[in-house]
Amino acid sequence: MTDEVMKAISEVSAELWGVWFLLGAALVFWMQAGFAMVEAGFTRAKNTGNIIMKNLMDFCIGTVTFILIGFGLFLGEDFMGILGKPGFDIFTSYATFDWSNFVFNLVFCATTATIVSGAMAERTKFSSYCVYSAVISAVVYPIEAHWTWGGGWLSEIGFHDFAGSNCIHMVGGISALIGAAFLGPRIGKFKKKKDGSIKVGAFPGHNLALGALGVFILWLGWYGFNGAAAKSVDQLGAIFVTTTIAPAIATVVCMAFTWIKYGKPDVSMCLNASLAGLVAITAPCDVTDAAGAIIVGAVSGLLVVFGVWLLDYKLHIDDPVGAVAVHMLNGIWGTIAVGLVATDAAPSFSLADSAGEKMLGLFYGGGFKLLGIQCVGMLATAAWTVVTMTIAFFVIKKTIGLRVTEEEEILGLDSTEHGLETAYAGFLTYGDSITGTAAESIAKKENAVPIDDAVPVQVKESTTPVASDVKLSKVSIICKQNKFEDLKTALNDIGVLGITVTQVLGCGVQKGQTKYYRGVEMDMTLLPKVKVEVIVSRIPVADVVKAAKQALYTGNIGDGKIFVYDVENVIKVRTGEEGYDALQGDN
User: Are 490 and 469 in contact (CB under 8 A)?
Assistant: First the structure.
């Protein structure tokens, strides 16, 4: 093969590899959709619009600040190994500017900022969140990322973080922890008992399907997150394998653990475990093998459950979506794991000290050298993040404020922060039950017909005694949803034509089944039921009760209850009829 042909093949190969690099950046950008879905699905419906808006602005505000400040601090000419020199090459060096590298690092910067959104969900001022997003994208992330990827001091000592367990996920997770701590918990999350202990409340997410779809989108995007910087096809294939094994193992381990601990496999915790495995494998994905990925994933599956428990039961910090457990703890674990599972069996292995000697992980006979370097880099990055983000959140809280008012939180941030009545127009969503807090509710009459335009009243002379002379009773029946049709048929057979049906939540003496959400026991579990109400006048009450009992009885707990009340009077609004007559039809 001639030199010209080889050169042409090499040029085409380089072009194709450049296309994959940009495609990887696009996949990382698509992860913003995954984060938005996970956070929206794991929180309450009244805050969905706010969640979406914060994720949108993380990228948009991040783009502005990264152009003006962040990119220079990150990849500008190195200054003493600490930061890059700010510059505006994107505006002044059009012909020579590295556009691919810019957009690739931009999407990574936006990902770091987005991690914090979930931990601060449902109670943060939108304006304050925008300020935070600008600060982390402009200064906090670019400087620490320069240490590792921009030619800074960590890269000089051999610190390894291939795609961001340390620089992105741990930094975002620590920021999430600090932000959630500054904010305080959502109303009703932690309740003080009479004995002084703290009871943890569960706030189930309103749309688990949306959250699951977000996890799958994130998993897809992670192949670009971890693989875009690969140097060869063999290395890319190996990265894809480790990026698949670790989250899969983490999810299986989490499923088994929660199944044993809580009696049922926890769905939302397993979704978090998938993300935890992805976070942890991000740093060592290029230097480990399948066995190493299994170790990384197995630890992640347990670590994410421990993290959620730690925040809820020990630190009493409210993290609605588990961002701290997923990103901070597993970001730390993934960074340390490089020093344990790095192996020269991995394609394109390149970890070496200043003398050019290969550095292997402890589990592969490499000793403690690489592990020590990883710990130094992790601790330095963590210290930088703690100091800068503490200052940032403190200043925001003392100036423009960080948290919305109690009333705004109860009403929901969609309406109070964005003037959005609901993110689910046309759908009925359950209201929130807040215990231990007095809240005023404002009732509004909508679509009310003016009195002058109302339907004319047709008063009829009563042909039967009024309520004081005729026994009126109300029969209220609470039953299982799957028995409603049987009940309706039974009532119809005895002549009951008028019923009122309501979908309700409730529990009987047994207080429902013991259930857990993210490891938190949900006390007095409210089960879905149907409430059927009948006002009885002509048909004997005993017949209604008998028909209901026959239709609903199975002999098992949860068959339902029947309540019978006296009714003082009934008034038909349109005609003015009262008592027995008000319950009869026009015919």
Answer: no
DSSP 567-587: ----B-TTT--BHHHHTS---
Domain membership of residue 431 (yes or no) is: no
C-alpha 380: how far from chain center: 29
Report the distance separating Cα 324 and Cα 276, nearest Å: 10
Contact 281, 334 (CB under 8 A): yes
Q: If pLDDT is split at 50, 70 and 90, which confidence band does 469 have?
A: low
| Residue 343 shares a structural domain with residue 482 | no
Res. 171: pLDDT tops 60: yes
Q: Are residues 117 and 253 in the same domain?
A: yes
Cβ neighbour number for residue 538 with a 10 Å cutoff: 10
CATH of the domain at 178: 1.10.3430.10
In a domain, 351, yes or no: yes
Residues 217-269 have pLDDT tens digits of 999 999 999 999 998 899 999 999 999 999 999 999 999 999 999 999 999 99
The strand pair at 500-506 and 520-522 is best described as unpaired
* Structural domain contains residue 3: no
Spatial distance between the Cα atoms of 330 and 332, rounded to a whole number of angstroms: 5
User: How many domains does the structure of the chain reveal?
Assistant: 2
∠ Cα 70 76 79 (to 5°): 110
pLDDT for 458 equals 46
Residue 467 inside a domain? The answer is no
H/E stretch holding 137: none
Give the mean pLDDT of the chain. Answer: 87
Cβ proximity of 180 and 119 under 8 Å: yes
Measured CA to CA, the distance from residue 44 to residue 203 in angstroms comes to 8
Question: Same domain for 368 and 478?
Answer: no
Could you tell me which of 546, 518, 535 has the C-alpha nearest to residue 270? 518
- Say whether both 490 and 411 belong to one domain: no
Which residues have CB under 8 Å from 437's CB, separation 6+?
187, 188, 406, 410
Reduced to 3 states, what is the DSSP secondary structure of residue 20? Answer: helix
Q: What gap in Å lies between CA 49 and CA 420, rounded to an integer? A: 7
Angle, in degrees to the nearest 10, between helices 330-341 and 369-399: 170
CA dihedral 162→54→213→280, nearest 10 degrees, is: 20
Please check whether residue 404 is in contact with residue 413, taking contact to mean a CB–CB distance below 8 angstroms: yes
Q: What CATH number does the domain containing 510 carry? A: 3.30.70.120
- The domain containing residue 511 runs over which residues? 473-567
